[in-house]
Amino acid sequence: MRIKTIEVQNQKFLFDGNGLKIYETDNFDQFNAKYFLTAEAPRSLQTEYVRTVCLVLNNSCNLTCSYCYANKGVYDFPNEQMTLESAKEIIDPLMKLVSNNGGVELTVAFFGGEPLLSMKLITAIVDYMETSRGYLKCNYKITTNGTLLSQDNVDFMENHNFEVMISLDGDKKRHDTHRIFVNGKGSYDRVAKNITLFKNKNKLNARITVTNSNVDIYSYFNGILDLGFNRLTYALDSRISPEDFSIFAGSLRAMLSQYISDIRNCRYYEITNLSLALVPLLTSRGYMSHCNAGTSYITKSADGTIYKCPRFIGDNNYLYRFDKINIIHKEDRDRGIEIEVKDRNLLACETCEYLYICGGVCSFHSKKGGNVAYECQHRKILFEKTLELICSLTKSQRRQFILYLNSVWTELR
Q1: How many domains does the chain fold into?
Q2: Same domain (yes/no): 22, 73
Q3: Which CA distances in Å does 220 have to 147, 171, 217, 240, 252?
Q4: How far apart are CA 50 and CA 86, in angstroms?
Q5: I need a labelling partner for 164 at 20 to 30 A (CA). Which of 106, 143, 206, 367 fits?
Q6: Which range, of 35-44, 94-103, 176-185, 198-207, averages the lowest pLDDT?
């Protein structure tokens, strides 16, 4: 069993990590005798067929961010460009696969390099999908550095309901430390100005990469909200030093404590890392892996090959064979899952009470270096604060908060 006791505002709770439920009690033996807590795993949140494809449109970028895992946007194959025909080769079977499995929607995520360098291709792909989708609903996402946004491409994305993730690493000083143009100048001012082009900022998500230069996330996250963002996502660079991780851990606790206070006071916005941890608690279904990569999410690189996710482009160990019916071969999918299970065993994930609201460590971090123990430690802080948030809200406050999140998620779909 995966059991954890929690105390919030002098009230004691019990978290059942298998049943994914929280109970107002701290007497495990008495409670277990009454409710018969299960040792079985919950049902999975993740589907077993591909319904999201990430298209890496190009291996080019107008920035030279020093921490970029993709070798400053070019991977190991500079100037590679995807074609419309290559995109169609995976979009057509994707639509058929989703339809055959009784699905009603699919997602295409545009990625790079810098995807806005291929805006004409984005337009062509969206136009093709809108004329080919039949009854299916097509969702569009894009991850961009934000420097090439214009009123024309913003209007296009808003007209097609894009979810737009913009990389923003804090205030000007912190952001410009790493996110620089080829000429060495920082990109913050350009990004901040371009954010004003959006009429509906509810579709925007600020993506913070936490490195040695901006570990004090609590000191600047309010400034990002002040730019008009209502959604934040942070990602920890696992290569940070022990000293900097300690600073980050304290700063993360402070930020999440403010978030709990804000939600209690009906100041609503979303930290997506925490929202992802909430979903299993709302549905009683758990994560069986860190993310959907290699199962319901797959990546097509600019040269047409298929990988588990963009981070593995160029690594043949994570190269997937194309299947016109299922997108990827079952053997490749199963091999990827087997690798993740081995990673979980090595890190003792199987004994953790948070396993099913976590899913385990990121495959990229476990295979490509960095301190995966930091990833584990920081997630435990996140999960502790997620449980604290739920336990600190009254039933009415929980209901209002969930209604808010549902309205955000509905607008995004």
Answers
A1: 2
A2: no
A3: 20, 6, 6, 19, 11
A4: 17
A5: 367
A6: 35-44
Cis omega before residue 336 (within 30°)?
A: no
**CB contact at 8 A, 166 and 206:** yes
The CA distance from 171 to 219, in Å, is: 9
Q: How many CB atoms lie within 10 A of CB 84?
A: 14
Predicted confidence band of residue 29 (pLDDT cuts 50, 70, 90): low
Distances (CA, A) of 143 to 109, 165, 213: 8, 5, 22
Sequence-ordered list of residues with C-beta below 8 angstroms from that of 219, at least 6 positions apart, any chain: 251
30 pLDDT more than 70: no
Please indicate, yes or no, whether residues 255 and 311 belong to a single structural domain of this protein: yes
Question: Dihedral through CA 209, CA 370, CA 307, CA 296, nearest 10?
Answer: -70
Q: For residue 343, tell me if it sits in a domain.
A: no
120-156 residues labelled b (16+ CB within 10 A) or e (exposed): ebbeebbeebeeebeebebbbbbbbbbbbbeeebbee
Same domain, 236 and 265: yes
One-letter amino acid of 311:
R
CA distance 402 to 99: 30
Domain around 234? 44-335+406-412
- For tokens 């091999």, the residue is 335
- pTM as predicted: 0.93
pLDDT over 70 (residue 328): yes
Query: What are φ and ψ of residue 22, in 5° steps?
Result: -120, 130
Q: Give a yes or no: residue 344 inside a domain.
A: no
Residues 379 and 358 sit within 8 Å (Cβ to Cβ): yes
CA distances (Å), origin 16, targets 46, 111, 391 = 20, 38, 14
List of residues 6+ apart from 329 with CB closer than 8 A: 320, 321, 323
Report, as an integer, the average pLDDT of 82-92. 97
Place of tokens 């995109």: 87
| Identity of residue 371 | N
Query: Are residues 31 and 48 located together in one domain of the fold?
Result: no
**Which H or E element spans position 306?**
strand 306-307
Query: The tokens of 408 are what?
Result: 């955000």
Helix/strand/coil percentages in the chain, nearest 5: 45, 20, 35
